[in-house]
Amino acid sequence: MHIAIIVRRLTNFGGVQRQALSLAHELKKMGHDIRLYTFAYDRERCYPELVGDIPVRALPQDEHLPTTGFFGFINETRMAKRLSKYIDSSTELLHPHCIISHHVAYFYKKNIKHIPSVWNLNELPAMRWPIEMLEMVENPEYHDIPKKPLWYKKLVILLRNAYDRFFVQKQDVITVFDTFHQKMLERYAGRKSTIVPSGLDIDRFQYLYHESPSREKKLFLLTSGIFLSYRRFEDIISALPILIEKGLDPELSIFGDYSCDKKYHKKLIELSRRLGVENRVVYKGTYLDEELMKAFAESHIFVFPHLQSQGLSVYESIAAGLPTVITPVPGTYETLHHKREVMVAEVKNPVSLAAALDELATDPTLYQTLSKDGSKYVRTNFSWRQYAEGMNAIFKKVGN
């Protein structure tokens, strides 16, 4: 089958990009003819080993439009129409992957050729979070977020969802990875969806034995993610003084591109200085998979306090045998269990986070349970092959 996979951007080492490209890689191994389409492409900064020899077509730079400001999403729709014209006419199925890409599929179906479109939804179309979580996510003190009244932000979200609802309705099938997005999609767009759990490169992230930490030695903490408004790195930094008071000697490494939100990075540095832990926080910046895997091997605990419904890095850390602490946000939390595969701490609560880290760092039995049982669970239940097989079954069904 000739499949066009459409991704908003292929310009960074992000979870959406890894998921889409891993799917493309597996589908190609199944015998499908795969082509990638995107608004922007940077091969060296976006998993070149996964792209391999799969053809990639990006929208020419001279056809790009400004996407910032209130009407930025309108320009993205105009760009989507332009990108649809570059999709090969032999395509038999469209697979828009992530937000805005489903606009591209709509225009191809309307103006080029009416073929099935299976949209993979990683987050709600016109917003990162639904209205109910807006106050929880946005923090103008730390992030470059316009200080608009909450009623204004909610109004904008409702208007954008009303606009996007049209494009959502034109998709033949929609897949999601958790019940949270399934319920929100039905509520905000009136569409049913099918749950297909995401995958993991279980061959790359092999289990490694991790020695249990102790109060007598340095405690190496690790977190990762592109610097965006919902990462909550400040919660980990704020937990460090509490850990020190408990007699631990923590050091935190943060892997992720901080050029996306320079104000956030600056505020985190100021916070660590104010708390007296600036020498205990290391910003690694952009990274390669090999560097992250090395960090998995050398760290004691992976921390994921993000207000984010799914994170591939969580499954990768667990698969590598690195005990992990998360917050109970839908998505990842739906598939993992407290003190069985992960430790769960309260959202936006450095005290709760410190308590979970302290318990994990000082209980060798619990530490080894999460390390061994967590890895076994993830490696058994998640793989890119399983993910591709789930998607392929849907492709075959709509393609007949």
Automatic annotation (TrEMBL):
One of its GO terms (molecular function) is glycosyltransferase activity. CDD domains: GT4_PimA-like. InterPro entries: Glyco_trans_1 (IPR001296), Glyco_trans_4-like_N (IPR028098). It holds the Pfam family Glycos_transf_1. It comes from the Bacteria. Residues 13-204 form the Glycosyltransferase subfamily 4-like N-terminal domain. Signal peptide: none annotated. Residues 212-375 form the Glycosyl transferase family domain. PANTHER family: GLYCOSYLTRANSFERASE (PTHR12526), GLYCOSYLTRANSFERASE (GROUP I) (PTHR12526:SF622). This is Glycosyl transferase family 1 domain-containing protein.
